[in-house]
Specification:
With 550 residues, this protein is an all-alpha fold. It folds into 2 domains: 4-9 and 34-286, no CATH class; 306-548, no CATH class. The protein is 76% helix and 0% strand. The chain is built from 21 helices and no strands. Mean pLDDT is 79; it is low at 24-32.
Length: 550
C-alpha cells in the first residue's frame, strides 16, 4: 500500500502529464482515456521546439559574453553570475503565478485537508510539482551555459562538478522566492475588490521588467567595440546588481569562501521558506481574510437575446480571470504597440529601404511590397491571441449548466467564437489604422490591411473552439491548468503559427511573381473566409453534438 505522500506525488505527476496530453471530459466513459501516440509526439515536438528556441536565445547572449570576457583577459566570474541571475529571473517569472494558484488558490485544498493526510505531505507534494516546473524552465539557460563553458577550453572536472552543484540549487532558490512572492500576491489580492486587475497589472509589470532587462543587457552587449571587445564598463555597471550571484561566480573561479556563503544563503532561503509554509499552511489556505464590502444598489436588468447573454457571460469570465487575460489575450497589446512604433518611427523604417546603391526601381518595388509584409506581421500576431482555445475547457464541472439552458447546442459555441472576435477586433483595427497611416498604401491595399488581420482573427476564433471541442479538459483543479496547458491551446497556437508562416511566404512569392499587393492579400482573405465558414458549419452540427455529450 502506498504511503499518503507517494500517492499524492503520483497524483500530481499524473495531473502534470494529463494537463499536457490527456483528453478528458466529465463523462465516465471518457475518464482515463489515453491520448493518441500521434498527439503525444506532436505536442512533445512543439515543447521541444519552444525550449530549443529559448535555449538558442540565451545561449547566443551568453556566448557573446564569454567571448568578450576571454578577449578582455578577465576571469569568468561575471559569466557565471549573469547565467545564474538569468536562471533565477526566468524561473521566478515563469512560476510565481503558478505557485500562487497551486499553493494558495487550489480548489482542492480543503478537500485534501479533510482527508487523513498531514498538511506537510500536501505541501511537499505541491512543492515537488513546482520544483519540476522550475527545473524545466531552468534548463533553457543552464544547458547552453554549461555547453559554452565546456567549449571555452578553461573547464576542468572540478569546475564541471561545481557548476552542476551550484546551478542545480538555483531552481530551488527560485522556488522559495516564488513561494514568498505567491503568498504576498495572495495576501494582497484577497483584500482587493478586483483581484484580477491586481494580478494582471503585476503580471504585465513582471513581463515588462524582464523583457526590458533582457533588452537593456542585449543593447549593452551590442555597444562593445568589436575590435577591442572591452566589456569592463558593462561588467562594472552590472556587477553591483547581481548581489549573491557574485558569490556563485567567484566560487566557480576558485573562491571557496564565496562558495560557502552562497550555499549558506541558498540553504537559509529554502529552509526558512519551508519552515514558514509548514507552520502556517493550514492558516494560509483556510483563513478567510475578508474583502472589500460592496453596497447593494437596486437597478433594472435589460432582457437580452440568448446569444448575447451567453456572450456577456464569456466576457465576464475573460475579464474576471487574470490568468485567462494574461496567457490568451496579452498578444492583443503587441499589435497596436508594434503598429504604433511603425507609425512614430516611419522615417527610420522607410529609410531602411533607402540604402546606398539602391536603384529607384528597386526602392519602388520594396515600398510596394511593404503592405504585404505589414499585413503578414499583423496576421502572425493572431497566433498569440487564442482566447477561444480554452473556452470550452473553462466550463469545467459546471458545463452541465450551459448544456441545460433552453438554447440550441450551437449557441454556446458560437458565443465563445463571437466573444473572441469582439475582444480582439478593436485592437487589430487600431493596429491596422496605425499601419495605414504610417505606410500610406494605395486604397485597395489599405482595405486589405484591415480585412486580412480581421479574417485571421476570425479564423483563429473558430479554430480555437474547434480544437477545444475535440480535446476538452474539464477535470481541472486550477483554472490556470486549462488556460496554460492542454492540447487545444497548443494545437491552436501551433496551427496558427504554421498557417501564418505559409500565408506570409505565399504572399511574398505571389508578389515576386508580379501579382499586385492588394491581390496578394485578397487571396489569403478568400481562403480564411472559406475555412472559417467550414469550421462554423461544423460547430453548428457536429461540434454542437459533441458539446451536448461532454
Amino acid at each position: 500500500m502506498k504511503s499518503p505522500l507517494r500517492a499524492l506525488l503520483a497524483v500530481r505527476l499524473r495531473a502534470l502529464f494529463a494537463g499536457m496530453f490527456t483528453v478528458r471530459s466529465n463523462k465516465k466513459k471518457n475518464v482515463g482515456k489515453k491520448p493518441s501516440v500521434l498527439l503525444i509526439i506532436l505536442l512533445s515536438v512543439l515543447l521541444l521546439y519552444v525550449g530549443v528556441v529559448f535555449a538558442i536565445l540565451f545561449g547566443s547572449l551568453l556566448f557573446m559574453l564569454m567571448l568578450s570576457l576571454r578577449a578582455a583577459g578577465q576571469d569568468l566570474s561575471f559569466y557565471f553570475a549573469a547565467a545564474a541571475a538569468l536562471t533565477v529571473l526566468l524561473c521566478v517569472f515563469g512560476s510565481v503565478f503558478a505557485t500562487q494558484s497551486e499553493l494558495y488558490n487550489a480548489k482542492d485544498n480543503e478537500l485534501l485537508l479533510a482527508m487523513p493526510v498531514s498538511p506537510s505531505q500536501i505541501l511537499i507534494s505541491r512543492m515537488v510539482m513546482l520544483a519540476i516546473i522550475n527545473y524545466g524552465l531552468s534548463l533553457v539557460v543552464i544547458v547552453p551555459a554549461l555547453l559554452i563553458y565546456l567549449l571555452s577550453g578553461v573547464s576542468s572536472p572540478l569546475g564541471i562538478v561545481a557548476f552542476c552543484v551550484f546551478f542545480l540549487l538555483l531552481p530551488l532558490m527560485s522556488l522559495a522566492i516564488s513561494c514568498l512572492l505567491g503568498w504576498l500576491l495572495a495576501l494582497i489580492s484577497s483584500r482587493m475588490r478586483h483581484k484580477n486587475i491586481v494580478s494582471l497589472v503585476l503580471s504585465v509589470a513582471f513581463l515588462v521588467l524582464y523583457i526590458g532587462g533582457m533588452g537593456a543587457f542585449s543593447s549593452m552587449m551590442e555597444t562593445i567595440d568589436p575590435e577591442t571587445l572591452d566589456i569592463m564598463p558593462i561588467v562594472s555597471a552590472i556587477t553591483p546588481y547581481l548581489l549573491v550571484f557574485n558569490w556563485l561566480g567567484q566560487a566557480m573561479c576558485g573562491n571557496i569562501l564565496s562558495g560557502a556563503l552562497f550555499l549558506v544563503f541558498c540553504a537559509a532561503v529554502c529552509g526558512l521558506t519551508m519552515i514558514f509554509l509548514s507552520r502556517s499552511y493550514i492558516r494560509i489556505v483556510t483563513t478567510n481574510r475578508g474583502g472589500v464590502r460592496v453596497k447593494y444598489r437596486e437597478k433594472s436588468v435589460k432582457q437580452s437575446s440568448p446569444l448575447w447573454a451567453l456572450m456577456k457571460k464569456e466576457l465576464r469570465h475573460f475579464t474576471s480571470s487574470a490568468a485567462y487575460m494574461l496567457n490568451e489575450g496579452l498578444g492583443l497589446v503587441f499589435a497596436p504597440i508594434l503598429a504604433g512604433i511603425l507609425l512614430f518611427k516611419r522615417d527610420e523604417m522607410l529609410g531602411f529601404f533607402e540604402l546606398e546603391g539602391t536603384a529607384p526601381e528597386e526602392l519602388a518595388f520594396l515600398t510596394e511590397m511593404l503592405p504585404v509584409l505589414i499585413a503578414g506581421m499583423l496576421c502572425f500576431l493572431a497566433s498569440m491571441v487564442i482566447i477561444s482555445a480554452p473556452s470550452v475547457s473553462l466550463e469545467g464541472k459546471n458545463v452541465w449548466i450551459t448544456q441545460s439552458m433552453p438554447v440550441p447546442s450551437d449557441k454556446p459555441l458560437l458565443a465563445k467564437v463571437y466573444t473572441h472576435i469582439l475582444i480582439a477586433t478593436p485592437f487589430y483595427f487600431l493596429a491596422s489604422l496605425f499601419a495605414v497611416i504610417a505606410i500610406r498604401p494605395d486604397f485597395l491595399s489599405g482595405v486589405m490591411l484591415f480585412l486580412l488581420p480581421f479574417l485571421s482573427n476570425v479564423f483563429c476564433a473558430y479554430l480555437g473552439v474547434f480544437f477545444n471541442i475535440l480535446f476538452p479538459k474539464l477535470d481541472w483543479v486550477n483554472e490556470a491548468a486549462a488556460v496554460k496547458s492542454g492540447a487545444a491551446v497548443l494545437l491552436t497556437m501551433l496551427g496558427m503559427m504554421v498557417l501564418e508562416i505559409l500565408e506570409i511566404v505565399g504572399m511574398i512569392l505571389l508578389f515576386l511573381l508580379g501579382v499586385p499587393s492588394f491581390l496578394c492579400m485578397l487571396i489569403p482573405c478568400a481562403i480564411l473566409f472559406g475555412a472559417s465558414c467550414g469550421l462554423r458549419a461544423y460547430l453548428r452540427r457536429g461540434g454542437a453534438r459533441r458539446f451536448a455529450n461532454l
